[in-house]
Specification:
It is built from 10 helices and 12 strands. The chain is α+β, with helices and mostly antiparallel strands. Helix 9 (313-323) crosses helix 10. The longest helix has 21 residues, at 331-351. The chain is globular.
Length: 352
C-alpha cells in the first residue's frame, strides 16, 4: 500500500537524522555523516518528498479514478443498418452518447434511444440502468417527421412516456383500447417534439406528461412527432455481439455478469447485478407508470438510492419531497414505494 510505504520512508529518515544537529545517528554507533549539518534536514525532506512522489506514482490509484470501471468493450450499430463499431467503457450517459455519435458518424442530437441486443423498437430491451458486458448497443435515430391531430375523448391519453436524459421524450407504451391506440396516429418509439406551438424538445418526460394531462377532455392534441428511422432488416431476429476478448482475468467479465450501472446523476460505475435491487427497481418503475403515467428506471434508481439513507418511511418521504418536489408525488405513491423497497430488501437479505 502506498501510504504504508511513505510512512516507512519518513520514519527511516527520522531515525537517520538527529533532531537537534541534523547529523546522522545511524543505528546508534555514534558515526556521523559528513556535510553541513544545517542543510541535512532540508536535503532529507527533499529526498522524502521525491520518494513519496515515486511511491504514489508507482503504486497509488488517484482517488478520482477509484470508481472508474474496468476497461470493458461494447459493439454498436445503427438500428436501421450500417457497419459495426466498437466503443470502450463509458463514464456517463453523455459520454456514451458522445462516443456513439463519433463512432457512428452521426449528430448526437439525432439519437432518440438505444436498445440492447436487438435492432427492433422493443422497449423491453431499452438501454436504461444497466449494461451487461458483451451487450450489443443498437442506436435508433430520428427518421420521418409527421403531424398527429388527436381528439382527447378521455382524461387519459393512454400512453407511457419516457426520455433518454438527453432532451428526447418518446412513447414507451400505448395502452390497448386507449385514445392513443384508437387514433392510429401515435406509435411506440415516436419522439414528442411539439404540442401546439410549445416545443417539447429538452423537456423531461414528467413535464411532457403534465402538459398532455392539462389538455381538457374534448380538446385537440396537435402534435409534431418524429418516428425512429427503420431499415429493411428491422423485423429480423435480435442480433448479439460477437465474442469479445478481455484483458482482465475477472471471471465476472468473462461470463457476462459484469455490468456498468448508469446512476441517477448520469455517471457510470462498475457493478454486479444484485437480484433484489433489480426486482425492486422494476417494481418501482411499475409504480411510476401506475401513479404518474411515466416509466423511468433512472428515477426508480434515485428512489432506491434515497431509501438507503433512511430508516423510517417518514424520513424517506421528507427526503423525497425535498429532493424531488417538482414531481409532486402523492403520499400513497411514496408509501407504496417504501413498502416495495422494504419487502424486496428483506427478501434479498433472507436469501443471502
Amino acid at each position: 500500500m502506498p501510504w504504508f510505504s511513505f510512512r516507512s520512508a519518513s520514519s527511516r529518515h527520522k531515525e537517520l537524522l538527529d533532531p537537534d544537529t541534523g547529523t546522522g545517528t545511524g543505528t546508534g554507533t555514534g558515526t556521523q555523516r559528513s556535510g553541513p549539518p544545517k542543510d541535512s534536514p532540508k536535503e532529507a525532506a527533499k529526498e522524502a518528498k521525491e520518494l513519496r512522489k515515486k511511491t504514489l506514482k508507482k503504486n497509488a490509484t488517484p482517488e478520482k479514478d477509484q470508481d472508474k470501471p474496468k476497461e470493458l468493450q461494447f459493439y454498436t450499430q445503427l438500428a436501421h443498418g450500417g457497419s459495426t463499431k466498437r466503443i470502450n467503457t463509458f463514464l456517463s450517459l453523455k459520454d456514451l452518447y458522445t462516443k456513439l455519435a463519433i463512432e457512428l458518424e452521426i449528430d448526437i442530437r439525432k439519437i432518440m434511444f438505444c436498445t440492447l441486443n436487438t435492432p427492433k423498437i422493443d422497449m423491453r430491451n431499452l438501454l436504461s440502468g444497466l449494461v451487461v458486458y458483451n451487450d450489443f448497443i443498437f442506436v435508433h435515430i430520428q427518421g420521418q417527421v409527421r403531424e398527429a391531430h388527436v381528439k382527447k375523448e378521455e382524461k387519459a391519453l393512454g400512453i407511457t412516456i419516457t426520455d433518454n436524459s438527453m432532451g428526447c421524450c418518446f412513447v414507451k407504451r400505448i395502452k390497448p383500447g386507449s385514445v392513443a391506440e384508437k387514433s392510429g396516429h401515435i406509435h411506440v418509439g415516436d419522439q414528442l417534439c411539439k404540442l401546439g406551438d410549445v416545443s417539447l424538445v429538452g423537456s423531461r418526460h414528467y413535464a411532457v406528461a403534465a402538459k398532455l394531462r392539462d389538455v381538457p377532455v374534448g380538446g385537440m392534441l396537435d402534435l409534431v412527432l418524429i418516428e425512429p428511422k427503420q431499415g429493411f432488416d428491422s423485423n429480423l431476429c435480435p442480433r448479439r455481439a460477437p465474442a469479445l476478448t478481455s484483458t482482465t482475468s475477472n471471471d465476472s467479465l468473462q461470463d457476462g455478469k459484469a455490468t456498468v450501472r448508469i446512476k441517477s446523476d448520469g455517471t457510470v460505475q462498475e457493478a454486479v447485478t444484485c437480484s433484489w435491487l433489480e426486482a425492486a427497481k422494476l417494481k418501482v418503475d411499475d409504480l411510476l407508470e401506475s401513479y404518474m403515467g411515466i416509466r423511468d428506471l433512472e428515477l426508480a434508481c434515485t428512489l432506491l438510492e434515497t431509501s438507503d439513507d433512511n430508516t423510517t418511511k417518514d424520513d424517506f418521504a421528507k427526503d423525497i419531497n425535498d429532493m424531488l418536489g417538482e414531481f409532486d408525488f402523492p403520499e400513497d405513491f411514496i408509501e407504496s414505494v417504501w413498502t416495495v423497497i422494504e419487502e424486496e430488501r428483506e427478501s434479498g437479505t433472507a436469501q443471502n
